[in-house]
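Regression check, zinc ion case 490:
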Amino acid sequence: MPQQRPETATGIHGWGVYIPRFRIKMEDIAREWGWSDSQWKALAMIEKAIAGPDEDSTTMGLEAAANAMKRAGVDPGDVGAVFFGTESKPYAVKPSATIIAEALGVTPVTMASDLEFACRAASEGLRASLGLVASGMVKYAIIIGSDTAQANPGDVLEFTASSGAAAYVVGPSPGSAAVFEGSYSYVTDTPDFWRREGTPYPRHGEGFTGEPAYFAHIIGAARGLMNTLGLKPSDFKYAVFHQPNGRFPLKVGEMLGFKPEQLKAGIVTPLIGNTYNASALIGLARILDNAAPGDRILVAPFGSGAGSDAYSIIVTDAVEEKRNKAPKVDELVSKKIMINYSTYAKFRHMIRVVRE
Amino acid sequence: MAGFSAPAVWRGRTHRYRLVAGKCTSCGKLHYPPSYSCPYCGSRSMVEAELPRVGRLMSYSVVYSVPFDSKSRAPVILGLVDLGVARVISEITDASPEDVSVGMQVEAVFRRIAEDGGTGLIVYGIKFRPVKGA
Ligand SMILES: [Zn+2]
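Current build output:
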């Protein structure tokens, strides 16, 4: 049995989120492609967030990381790792992590890399960071999940694929807002969702994305974590999972034995869509925006391909003074500019303009 | 397209990414973007200083005829932003012409400023957006 937590305690020093202001209503997407309204209602969706024409996963990731650094209050020179998880890289080759590290003033003495594992890449960065920090190899690490998620126009995925970013500053447990109690990873080779090199939009295995992928891996990770730590669902105040739509996180929570009141605080997808690498991490941020010292939280991101990591974290007194130092999730969700389908299509480069 | 010069993009990254101005050690005034000599007194003794990220829009111009790579965000709003210690000329983003007015509060955000076609470099840097959401 591998060690599921390092010998030295680690914690979250800062959390930060960025949600672009542009929103489109589900009705507008349904009307454009002739979907029945029951299609998006079954996904428990209302609106989704869309990055503006001058935004990408790097710009959104930086805004989230800067917000996390405001809450962390740490010297950029003490950051020893910047991990950027995305499946919407602006460059196929050239790291976004170095651009973000440069803009934050963390360069040059730091690790920096872009990670890929569908929606779970940032979570892998988080798990690796716990080990790096606990071993003393780095003092603080910044983990960023950011996506401008792509969907083939007219694909059912278009209802949910959205844009947003979340970032965490992880360091030694003293002074942190929440302490990691344990973590557990669960991965297999499962072909539920993929995008081939050089192609613009992903493909998915329709019904195959649910049971053998999302549910099996999150349940594997969350049960593994609870068994290892000797905890049961009622020991947690909150649980938050990856949110490909508004329905799956409630269902997986219920299958694990959590009650709706433990799950609702972390569900943000109905109002902003599925932000992929940021999905569960924005949910966790919303919980930290409101949590009380002593609250125990289970968080389990998921990525297709497939894998999940479950973490148990316990909120400390420091959460209170940190939460007002950067915009809260609800503030970012409520600042919005509604746009129509054609503007959305233009902003997300679905209309190709030919250079004359 | 002529293509962006990688060294030029690289040299400007600190002031573009972090809103770093030039500060004259002779007269004490700040200017942005930083240059080799002070535009106020001509001194060549400069240090770097990060500017505040929130300011007021002093004036702006709406540009309807824009270069090819800016078409998706036309019309482009160019603003003169007063940050107290310095003034900055910057694109105003996340806003339509009807959303902007002289005196409004704006804040710095990190955005794509330009891109060299579909295969060249992407240039990132600071723009400003209205503090208030729509
Ligand atoms: Zn001078």
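Comparison notes: The domain at 9-347 of chain A is CATH 3.40.47.10 (Peroxisomal Thiolase; Chain A, domain 1). The radius of gyration of chain A is 19 Å. No diff flagged against the previous build.
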